[in-house]
Amino acid sequence: MIVGDRRQRIAGMGTRYAMLITAAVVLVLPFVYMVSTSLKSRSLVLEFPPKLIPDHPTTTNYTDAWGSQNFGRYFLNSTLVAIATTALTVLLAAMMAYGFARFDFPGRRALFAAVVVGLTLPTMALIIPQFLLARDLKMLDKLYGLVPFYVGTQLAFSTFLLRAFFERLPAELDEAMTIDGAGAWRRFWSLAVPLSRPALATCAIFTFLGSWDEFIWALTVINNVANRTLPIGIALFRGQHSTSWGLIFAASIIAIVPVIAVYLTFQRHIVSGLTNGALRG
Fold first, then answer.
1. What is the pTM assigned to this prediction?
2. Is the pLDDT of residue 223 over 80?
């Protein structure tokens, strides 16, 4: 009986590992193929059968992609917008979430319900009113004009996550600081913010990724070539070089590098931040 149960456990573990390995291969293989193609010369990009390890790898595609069509400028624009959006979103969301979690004021539940409703609204449904608002505020075709709308898009999720995290902090700590004469602002900066670094890092990662990859809104409001962001640059770049897949994949790899760097920097906070933020809503 014991031997039979052990065999079942081993068979179950083997099945799970096989499924995980299959899923990992399916997810990683396209990325490996993209990297491989970006290191091939133009004449070998469409070779058949394809080789994942090029015989003569070259970085020409990367140098050509970086020097083509203001690609470096687009990269800088996306970096500035993503950093500004992340900083503002995390700051505003932290203050809003702390208010919802620690203060009892009239309309608190209704206001937080409105924040939750904001999570359910599709971005495309808001693009026309957002465009009219940007026009009235004279933010069309302005690089800095992207930031407030990106912040508004990311704010609801970050507030929702941080509120749940702040509610898990022991209220006794706030009471102890209050007895020592600390006001709400000091309790927020000296207590809540240091203790919530995993949740703040999680919000920062998701906000950075969302603003870095955003395409539709930037394409709608940006016409000036100097103000284009990286997703627009890659899309236009692809149209101009539709047959040079090595060049296109090299540009895509360059665009992925900051995303990977941000994830590797903060990845240890993701699990704890999401877990603690999801335990109470």
1. 0.81
2. yes
